[in-house]
Amino acid sequence: MSISQQPKAASNVLQQQLQQAPPSGGLRYPSSKKTIYDRNLNRTRTSELSRASFAYLFIEMISYAQKRAPSVSDLEKRLNASGYPLGLKLLDLLIYREPPRSALRPTRILALLQFVHTTLWKHLFGRPADALELSNNSPAEYMITDNEPLVNAYISIPKEMSQLNCAAYVAGIIEGVCDGAGFVTESVTAHWAEGEDIWPGKTIFLIKFKPEVIEREGILKGGTS
Amino acid sequence: MPDIYVAACNCNGWTRRLAGLSTSAQWKGILTKIRSFTVVFTLLIINKAGGLIYNRAFDSSLAALSSNDSLILAGTFHGIHAIARNLCPPSALPSSTLSSASSTSFTSNPSASASALGTRATPATGIQVLETARFRLTCFQTVTGTKFLLFTSPEQPNVDAILRRVYELYADFVMKNPFYTTEMPVRCEKFDRGLVGFLVGAR
Q1: What is the ipTM of this complex?
Q2: What are the backbone angles phi and psi of residue B82, rounded to the nearest 5°?
Q3: CATH numbers and ranges of domains, chain B
C-alpha cells in the first residue's frame, strides 16, 4: 500500500482550485491567481481533517526523519524540528482568532502555559490537554500531560526503539509557540509516563525554560505583587 | 465411531478444559449444554505472495499447529484459493453444497453472465467458506490480495461483520504504523491489543 502519495489535506475549495490549474511543470497556481495566502484566516476555523490522512502523512514524516537519523534521540530532534515552524505560525493565528477582548499575547508563564494547554490543544486535537503541573526538580520546568496523544494513535513502537515517542512532533509545536511568544526554551521533550496501566500511551511534555525567562518572571511578580 | 469433544466446564469459578471420548450420558449432558458456545478460534493473515504474516489463536479448542505447519497451511491455502478461482464455471449457478455431519463443503462465487441489461459480471473469487463439523474457515480477500482467514465454530453468526472489523483494525494499526514494512510479519502491539479486546469478548 502506498503511503507516501497522500496529498496534504487542504480544504475542498483549494483542492478544486488546484485541480483546475494547467498541468505545466513546477509549482501550480490556480487560474484565479488566488493562493492560500489570499483566503480569509477565519474561514478554516472549524474545518476538520481526516485522521487517516494525517496518519499517512505522519508515517512518511517519520520514515523521512528516520533515514537521516542514526539514533533515537536524533530522530526525536528531527521530528521536533519539523514541528517548530508550525508552532511559530500557530501562535499568531490562534491569538488572531480569539475574540478581540482576550486576543492578547501571553506575557506571564502561567498565561502562556494555559494558552498551550487549552487553546492550542483544542485547535490541534479537539480537546484540552489533561494536566499542567510544575515540576518538582526545578522552577524552570513545567509538564503538560496528555493521556493519549492523537499523533500516536496508530503507532506501535517496536521493542528496540521503546524510548522513541513520536509526540516529539507536538513537542516541537509547543517549542515554537513558547519561543514565538518570547519565552525562550532550552528544550521541550516528550516522554512516556512510567507505570501507567489505564493509559498506556500517556505522554508528558517537559518544557524547560531558560533561566532568563524565570528571572524575568520573578521580576514581574515582584513588581506587581 | 466415538466423537471427540473438546469442552469447557465451569466448576466453582474454575474453568477446566475436558477433552476425551464421550460415552456416558452424564458427560453428554454437560457437553450438549456447552456446545452452543460460538467461538473464534484463530486468525491467520496471508500476504500477496502467499506467506503467512500473522497467526494468532484466541481459543485453544482447536489443535495447535507448529509454526512450520502454519506456514505450510498458509501456502497451501493460497494455492488452492487461486486454483478454485480458475475452476469456477462461467454460469450463474452456484455450486451445490454437500452437507453431511463430518464432510467438508466449500462455496465460491461464480461469475454471473452479463445480461443484455448490461449488469456487470461479478468476477470469480476463490474459496470463501470451508466448513466442517468442528469448525468453519472463512476467507476474506482484500482488493490488494491480502487474505484474512478466520477459524470459528460452525454456529458462529456474523462472521462477515467480524472479518470486516478485523480488516478495520488491520487498516488502522498495521497500515498506519510507520515501523511496519508491508508484506512482512505483523508485529504491532496495538493490533494485538485491539484484536484480543474484540475477539476474545465476541462470544
Answers
A1: 0.74
A2: -70, -40
A3: 36-85+123-201 (3.30.450.70)
